[in-house]
């Protein structure tokens, strides 16, 4: 399959479509259309993986990386199956943009509105595929080019390459992801439909499990339970009463359904209440549990058990499991949610006894867990894999495993090898998927009244309450998961039924050591791991340990080890590195990641033929991650030849907003140079610094002028690509001392250039006359539009304007740290209270850096914050005198900073109305502030504005 018919000495590098302009607006729209779970390609839903790229973005990356540069946009889009089947009078891009602009007013489905199916549902006809193959053969000297994905993940890239009839190599280190790839790339096209066979064996599994588990899930009036609200309880060390442990009591918030503990009985009990219909929120607030900030308050004696003591309770096993509420499959006595009965409690007790007394159950998953950097459950006693489950959950999962083991020998004996493996794999997917919503680490999702996802936040987090599912009934039952797995597997089979004996290899191994010959392939399309974004191996372990139980004797090589391979994984993992004196583990982990990515790209360089193409997805927002990636590319010998921005994912943080903007994916295209192109003399950094900045400025201007709805952060990230192209084209780059200049210097120039564009467009004037700290503060609000900013992004923004935020934190208190984020401070956090200063009253416990009685201020933002405090505490007349005494109202910078704050502060910020008031009335008459900066109608008319004399 893998071939190389071209002599390297004779090869001429032909330009590719991906190195020219692309229809990125159309592809962005298509990618966003597929961002919802219900609309995504079925191969992504058989067993979900962490990164799941949309079909349109993937097809663009694959096809444009192979096709010649004279391919028209319309021809490419039609090949991608974007656009209507019938002829139209305009270009496809114009058609799609017009449809998209009116989609909010559509009647019917998205597909009805656009008048064509989602691209993932369609592939070109055989004549169209034949024509495509002919074109790419011409481009690649007669060979049908091979597409290699070294880090295949969920398999989207190789799946789409295979659907277009291209020779394909999928490589994946993680056994769980490898199994997904094996299913969609090997089993689906070669074995095909197994629906009737699966149904037969599922019946056997369910009959077996019902006999084992029915007694542990008592019905109510003949209706089976669906989900349980579970929490813990401990004995109060002060009064000896039992304390229920939960941070909130909502069960199904939209319907007002909550669990309320009952403390007036001899034993702890619970009831189901409707808030506020039955119980007012003043009487009982379900948002407030017994736990807050990690401490637990006893409802009987009000004594607080602090976090450290509470952790020790859980770590030593001095707690009990409680059943707080039950959701039934349908209404019982007019309601679906009910308090636990004595039968429920007895069922839990029997399940616990069964687990403790059954030899197999007592040893199941009794293996010590790998404890990663992001693990937050181990301190609470979650040390072994079995500890992720309550006794009844463990009993449930064990029952399905026993049923599987009961039928496995018959399946192996009855079917040929590959069919048997297909059946066993699909039958294992069903129960292993179920652990996501049936674990102690899966909280109740109050929005829906059911358990949430075990690894939904890409970490193992201890939960003060958790959801438990009855896998014999309801939303997350064995049957519902089976329907999901099999329906999507059948769709995948239908998606590949046009292929005759596809040329596909599915390898499991290290991306830095591919099982391919030197110069043996034409294209590599890769969506690599991004720094510390997701610890894939660590997160997959919870599934891996169960797959090992189910399939360890079926795929012996893949599931030999007790846990997944962390050592060869390309992520920034501080846990597996050792730091020397003066180094931090995070620094060492970053260096290790960079070295690992260099190894992967060097391997890509080895297996690519001269002139071969490497296209890389990248979405990380940190400059250090970009710096590492770019250095890895450069050191491997590649040249960056093109970059394109695709708005391919809808971020969860803003997905609910009507005008939500999209996170961008950058496609970086690199080429392996033909012979004689790899050596270049060093370039002086001063000679290309302006070029890098101008490339970023041009890209930012292009995006801001487009119809994209990008966040300002994504605009900055999108400008990194053209900047890197300039940098890599001139690499190696050195400074005046002949020392190496890394890509991060170019990226800092890019960030500075884009922020200057944003200032010109968003702020009425420049910030040239503002000091660096004030500029950083205003730009932070302008760029991120909220108080909390990822630390690295805030740091890089500071460096771009001449502020090292670590060094100014103590003296200015203009920001504080919360986890890995910077939190911007307002005047209330920085200025001493004027009234308290005059009266001698000590209202504030800590020292604030700004004294409003001062006549001069170190930074412009300090003066404005002081003025806001004076206005808040002393009123408008006093503020006018305060300004006159210091003669700062006549300084252009004071009006400029005040106006900028009006333009960047969110409307709900506590300083916002103060800035409006300062810019209005008597004080406002002394300031040259543009009234258009008042962004709301109420502010513009003054209806929300307080009378300054009364402030």
Describe this structure in words.
With 951 residues, this protein is an alpha+beta fold. Among the domains are: 318 residues, 3-Layer(aba) Sandwich (Rossmann fold), CATH 3.40.50; 122 residues, no CATH class; 188 residues, no CATH class. Helices cover 42% and strands 13% of the residues. A seven-stranded mixed sheet has the order 16-2-1-17-18-20-19, sandwiched between helices. A hairpin with a 4-residue loop joins β5 and β6. α18 crosses α21 and α20 crosses α21. The chain is globular, with a radius of gyration of 31 Å. The N and C termini lie far apart (79 Å).
Short description:
With 951 residues, the protein is of the alpha+beta class. Helices cover 42% and strands 13% of the residues.
Classify the helix fraction into a percent range: 40-55%
Corresponding CATH architecture of the domain at 17-187 and 497-534 and 571-679: 3-Layer(aba) Sandwich
Query: Care to count the β-strands?
Result: 25
Using the coordinates shown, work out and report the CATH topology of the domain at 17-187 and 497-534 and 571-679. Rossmann fold
Give the overall average pLDDT.
89
- Gyration radius (Cα, Å) is 31 Å
Tell me the name of the CATH class of the domain at 17-187 and 497-534 and 571-679: Alpha Beta
Name of the CATH superfamily of the domain at 17-187 and 497-534 and 571-679? Vaccinia Virus protein VP39
- The helix count comes to 31
Structural class comes to alpha+beta
Runs in which pLDDT lies below 50 for 5 or more consecutive residues are: 1-10, 649-662, 933-951
